[in-house]
Fold each of these.
Amino acid sequence: MKQIVITKHGDPDVLEIKERKDPQPSAGEVLIKVKAIGVNFADILARKGLYPDAPKPPCVVGYEVSGTVETAGPGVDSSILGSAVIALTRFNGYADRVCVSEKAVFRIPDPLDFERAAAIPVNYLTAYQLLHVMGGLKKGESVLIHNAGGGVGLAALDISLHLEATTYGTSSVGKHRFLMQRGLNYPIDYRNQDFLSSIMSLTGGKGVEVVLDPIGGRHWKKSYRALRSTGRLGMFGVSTVTDSTMGRLFQFIKLIAQTPRYSPLELMNANKSVFGVNLGHMWNERDKIGGWMQEILKGVEEGWVRPHVDRAFPLERAGEAHAYIEARKNIGKVVLVTGG
Ligand SMILES: NC(=O)c1ccc[n+]([C@@H]2O[C@H](COP(=O)([O-])OP(=O)(O)OC[C@H]3O[C@@H](n4cnc5c(N)ncnc54)[C@H](OP(=O)(O)O)[C@@H]3O)[C@@H](O)[C@H]2O)c1
């Protein structure tokens, strides 16, 4: 099989394609012949050495694939053989073959092709946990989605529209037209406008009920201020660490120094709450993840889950896919395809 290996921490050219022996599924696992792989921001952080959860190089990252089940391990019902599936892979996804527990595998609903199927798990599960499970967004409330044009951002927009909430989203201005076509009510050009002033003026000084913030550091302070009474701030990423050219250690020190500390008394008196989401740490909650995934796949059939693939790169050009995302060119998802 072919795998894309992070040979050491660094620029996209540290990603190299390697030929490896095909893996064999253990008990309870299936072997998937991979068609498409979702690229995530976490993969880029891992390549740069900025993602503490990633294995040490040389390593293979990748959280999600789509493909067909080629072999079933002992104890797995053989009726799954040949099925088109999506799978959550905790690393090793950048490959044309991968073994994964049958519990992390979901059949692809009819309307989806392999590329769009690979765009679903991480983006939609994260957005679902943020908005539905922890953020409790309701009909008639309002939500500010930062990075609205990114993979999680578009998924959050789909879910917010389905919940009949009013949507505000920050993104670079070139993405606004597309976002409005997808249904975003109020795009905010965060590069040329202060998003907090924009939100306050658009909401008559009230703020919004839910903010989703993957930027981190002092950005979280500002997002907290954009909350209306009863507001909930969902923190789920630290994209800001990639902005700096400083060494890794200094980047982390700067991040910690800028990260707000919330006091229970202050939260109580402000009628606000803050929460965090890290899907990568939900690996032991398969039943919950499975239930959320069933809801999301039902959303595909009902038409409100609309995964959008911006570009597909051949597996061997994974480095170009990373560079494309780092240049902030993508709207929605970037995937790798195996051609298999
Ligand atoms: N906690 C979790 O479970 C979880 C799961 C998935 C993702 N995440 C996090 O969510 C964030 C977005 O992930 P994604 O997969 O949706 O990303 P993505 O699709 O690659 O979106 C990246 C976009 O974010 C915007 N952006 C804003 N500040 C940025 C910065 N400092 N560096 C790079 N891009 C920046 C850019 O859009 P503009 O053109 O609008 O600037 C860029 O195109 C990342 O921080 C990721 O780690 C967390």
Note: The chain has a mean pLDDT of 96.
Amino acid sequence: MLRFDTLRLDTPRLRLRPLRPDDAPAVYALHADPVALRYWSTPPWDDPAQADELIGRDLKALAEGDYLRLGLQRHADGRLIGLCSLFAFHLPSRRCELGYLLQRGLWGQGLMHEALLALLDYGFGVLDLNRIEADIDPRNAASRRSLERLGFAEEGRLRERWIVAGEVSDTALYGLLRRDWAARVGAPLPRRG
Ligand SMILES: CC(C)(COP(=O)(O)OP(=O)(O)OC[C@H]1O[C@@H](n2cnc3c(N)ncnc32)[C@H](O)[C@@H]1OP(=O)(O)O)[C@@H](O)C(=O)NCCC(=O)NCCS
């Protein structure tokens, strides 16, 4: 059985780690920003209790391996500045989806790129995934660039797939295969087990 509750991934500027109850104010601030949530699959939050609920769900889900969400904690000051996740696992197909959210004032410094390099390395290298997908709003330029910079390819459009607070939007579906990743890192990936 997978379990993620003790996972830590370190990058030059960040520690990726499971959320803790005392992260609730930072998690709330991330999800309450209407600009950062402009293209998200849910509306911005308006109740701090939503952060407590998310962290409570994570504690159980990470221990049971249902999904993996990690907070991005900055080495420099210990602050939690973002979230990234692997979810919707389909283990027979060795596939899951990727999600990510970074505090707005910190965009454009390559921080999420750094975090996602570590997360994808874990997904392909340790979890032995064959495919990681991202479902984004085609209008989300920063997300699109983030994915392309990591080697994801746009594979298709799904029309009117989302209705969020009454706004209908399409999906641009991106995919990254294990062999794409292996070519990118320049070495065959080890098989687990
Ligand atoms: C998507 C997101 C995580 C990118 O984080 P980031 O740390 O700024 O990303 P990086 O610094 O690694 O930059 C990735 C690319 O996006 C570009 N970018 C960053 N902010 C941008 C913006 N506001 N508009 C257009 N491009 C932008 C960067 O220039 C970079 O492109 P480059 O490789 O051509 O230079 C961040 O913008 C975010 O949290 N957005 C809101 C949440 C969201 O939409 N998540 C995805 C939902 S599927």
Note: The longest strand covers residues 153-164.
